[in-house]
Amino acid sequence: MSTKNCVISAVGKNSLHKMWTEGNGDFDLHLIAYDDSLEQFRGDADFACHIKGYKLKVIYKYLEANPQFKDMYDYFFFPDDDIQMDAATINALFEAMCHYGLKIAQPALRMSYYTWPHTLYNRYSKLRYTNFVEMMAPCFSREALQ
Q1: Quick one: average pLDDT of 36-54?
Q2: Most Cβ neighbours (<10 Å): which of 12, 69, 80, 126?
Q3: Is residue 80 packed enough to be buried (19+ CB in 10 Å), middle (13-18) or exposed (0-12)?
């Protein structure tokens, strides 16, 4: 492992994950193909496998099958595969987690479908504390994940 940060995403044939590595990412990327697209993505990430199912269930199965990852990383980001972002955006999330000592967080959403207004970007805020994160893009510290 070259980093203390981990991105794990359940991906399908229309995944946008290739955008996430545009730039210099300070994270390892793990892809879990939930459909028949594994061969299409095998060279896109540090780790890739196939597990059928839904996002959180396949991530859970992946981490249970690979418990060493839970000890190797300080932070875990689980974005949906349709989230548009680049490596700098992901790096900024991990930097904020570390700098502010956050246990659970999510990046603010821009030009995105949303259910909860407090998850949207606010140009007057750098950080907002809440008791809720949207599961489309949660980030956990190792302690919170355990």
Answers
A1: 91
A2: 69
A3: middle
